[in-house]
Amino acid sequence: MIVNILPRRSCLSRGAPGDGSGEQLIAANIDTIFIVTSAGKDINLRRLERYLTVVYSSGASPVILLNKIDLTDNPTSLVEINSCLDCKIFKNYSRLSLKAVSL
């Protein structure tokens, strides 16, 4: 039995599949969304910007996790990535660089 329905504070959604122009809800009432991307050769700053746009439009706070920093061929590329992210219009997000280790 449903007792109460809370109002939405945030709403992560996408366009509904098919020909309709509706909206498909993915998740609601999310405070923080983690965006995980590799810092290696396949990093795509445009894709990261698109993800940030979706998170900001949802009302949640983004955290960017740059993974595989140990596999980066050029250590200065991490500095370039960080400076590029800083110069964008997107502010108010956290960023962490990490090396995932399997146990």
Task: Explain what this protein looks like in three dimensions.
- The chain is of the alpha/beta class and about 100 residues long.
- It has one domain (about 20-95).
- The chain is about 25% helix and about 30% strand.
- The chain has helices at about 45-60, 75-85; strands at about 10-15, 25-30, 30-40, 60-65, 95.
- It has a three-stranded parallel sheet, with helices on one face. Strands 1-2 form a two-stranded antiparallel ribbon.
- Strand 4, helix 2 and strand 5 (about 95) form a beta-alpha-beta unit.
- The longest helix is centred in the middle third of the chain and has 14 residues, at about 45-60.
- The termini are far apart.
Q: Would you spell out the secondary-structure blueprint of this structure?
A:
Layout: E1 11-15, E2 23-28, E3 32-38, H1 45-58, E4 61-67, H2 75-87, E5 94-97
Parallel strand pairs: 3-4, 4-5
Antiparallel strand pairs: 1-2
At a glance:
By secondary structure, the protein is of the alpha/beta class. The chain has helices at 45-58, 75-87, and strands at 11-15, 23-28, 32-38, 61-67, 94-97.
